């Protein structure tokens, strides 16, 4: 955790990280990378036994331990209201602190909007949005006390740009952008930095939709370095949305165009000046909604 030079490996020795949905896909690769760099990892995933009698989180914790790393499992749905405090409790009991929270657990229930059931909406919002809120809130007080925290939330191209058949998922993923940006503002005073990852990888969630020849290029291991960087103490970013997929790493921005100004604008003025309103020659990225004194 001390000074480092550019040639030194970015490490997490002494840090305690929680990774939800860490029993498979992207979460597993995040948990493995953080553990390989010295973090103690709490791997959360649903309580389901595989053929070998292990839960998904238990299997990844065992895999980490077999490589000389430090990990414990928390088995249970992050969508349960009691899950956030329970996962944080597991981290405190096993390792005495929480420095890093990677909100990654996720599901899809794809259907076109007209046919989507209330249950399909609720299930998706519960895991992504309420799961992330519940865990981050449970960890918030602990991180605030120590004046240190790194939180990553998982958005998606579907939430940022929209995607056919994913109204429930897009709503949850875009909701996380608002949540993350507000928590970045609120966390700044406490040394807590909050960023979003928009990942792309061939996993059990997506592999069936991706051509086979893309699977190797779209490995979760190509997303993990970006997430690990966002979790590192040297990372200066907060409130950012970073894209990582297939070996490409980029920044996503929500911009506001310079626009058209008229204090007495009529409907017809709006129609006439639509090109000025939409023009992207000049734009800004607002740092936050309004500048209010902190409460
Ligand atoms: N794979 C992609 O291209 C892609 C793109 C955009 C966003 N994402 C997001 O990345 C995250 C990881 O997805 P993935 O592709 O690795 O999918 P995945 O299905 O391979 O892994 C998701 C993991 O979350 C676990 N999980 C599901 N519900 C849970 C719950 N209620 N509580 C705890 N764990 C739960 C699953 O058991 C699984 O291990 C998700 O939030 C997903 O929406 C993935």
Automatic annotation (TrEMBL):
Q: Which UniProt keywords apply?
A: Oxidoreductase
GO MF, one example: oxidoreductase activity
Q: Which InterPro entries match?
A: KR_dom (IPR057326), NAD(P)-bd_dom_sf (IPR036291), Peroxisomal_Beta-Oxidation (IPR051687), Sc_DH/Rdtase_CS (IPR020904), SDR_fam (IPR002347)
List the SUPFAM superfamilies hit by this protein, alphabetically: NAD(P)-binding Rossmann-fold domains (SSF51735)
Q: Domain Ketoreductase spans what residues?
A: 15-200
The UniProt similarity line reads: Belongs to the short-chain dehydrogenases/reductases (SDR) family.
Kindly provide the name given to this protein in its UniProt entry: Short-chain dehydrogenase
**UniProt organism field:** Phytohabitans houttuyneae
């Amino acid at each position: 955790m001390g000074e480092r030079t550019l040639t030194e490996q970015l490490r997490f020795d002494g840090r305690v990280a929680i990774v939800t949905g860490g029993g498979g896909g992207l979460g597993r690769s995040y948990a493995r990378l953080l553990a390989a760099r010295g973090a103690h990892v709490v791997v959360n995933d649903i309580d389901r036994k595989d053929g070998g009698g292990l839960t998904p989180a238990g299997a990844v914790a065992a895999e980490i331990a077999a490589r000389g790393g430090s990990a414990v499992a928390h088995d249970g749905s992050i969508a349960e209201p009691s899950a956030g405090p329970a996962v944080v409790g597991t981290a405190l009991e096993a390792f005495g602190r929480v420095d890093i929270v990677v909100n990654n657990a996720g599901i899809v229930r794809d259907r076109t909007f007209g046919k989507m059931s209330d249950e399909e909406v609720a299930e998706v919002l519960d895991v992504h949005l309420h799961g992330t809120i519940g865990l981050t809130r449970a960890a918030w007080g602990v991180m605030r006390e120590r004046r240190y925290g790194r939180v990553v939330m998982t958005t998606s191209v579907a939430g940022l740009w929209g995607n056919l058949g994913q109204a429930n998922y897009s709503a949850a993923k875009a909701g996380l952008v608002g949540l993350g940006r507000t928590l970045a503002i609120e966390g700044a005073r406490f040394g807590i930095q909050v960023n979003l990852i928009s990942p792309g990888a061939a996993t059990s969630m997506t592999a069936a939709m991706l051509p086979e020849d893309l699977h190797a290029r779209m490995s979760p291991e190509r997303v993990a370095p970006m997430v690990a960087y966002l979790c590192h103490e040297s990372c200066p970013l907060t409130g950012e949305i970073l894209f990582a997929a297939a070996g490409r790493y980029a920044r996503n921005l929500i911009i506001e165009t310079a626009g058209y100004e008229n204090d007495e604008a009529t409907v017809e003025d709006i129609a006439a000046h639509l090109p000025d309103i939409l023009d992207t020659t000049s734009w800004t990225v607002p740092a936050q909604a309004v500048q209010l004194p902190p409460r």
